[in-house]
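Input (structure):
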């Protein structure tokens, strides 16, 4: 997802944490992305299960929304939704994905933008 062609949202869920890069350093957007990254990383490293975090962030709607450029999560209804869906794909079992209405095949990810869930 991009706010402009020069300002993509980058999400890395490796290394046991979450890194969200978005916005110009020092901007409110970058600060909010860093805050969410830190909160999720500390939570996950402290043993908080990923499922309830993902469940709360999924389908949370705000701009920017739309195409992400992420092959695992082609579209999302917000940056938080994109992060949640990426975390779900990386951390949840197939049963947990099913409970959230997602699948590991990739086909369900696009439903985020068109399903109307969370409204």
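Output (sequence):
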């Amino acid at each position: 997802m991009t706010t402009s062609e020069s300002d993509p949202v980058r999400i890395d869920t490796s290394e046991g944490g979450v890194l969200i890069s978005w916005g110009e350093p020092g901007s409110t957007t970058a600060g909010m992305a860093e805050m969410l990254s830190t909160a999720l990383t500390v939570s996950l490293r402290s043993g908080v299960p990923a499922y309830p975090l993902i469940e709360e962030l999924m389908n949370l709607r705000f701009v920017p929304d739309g195409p992400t450029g992420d092959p695992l999560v082609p579209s999302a209804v917000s940056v938080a939704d994109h992060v949640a869906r990426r975390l779900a794909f990386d951390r949840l079992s197939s049963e947990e994905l099913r409970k959230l209405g997602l699948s590991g095949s990739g086909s369900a990810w696009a439903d985020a933008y068109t399903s109307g869930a969370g409204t």
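Notes: Strands lie at 10-12, 19-21, 66-70, 73-76. The two ends are 20 Å apart (CA to CA).
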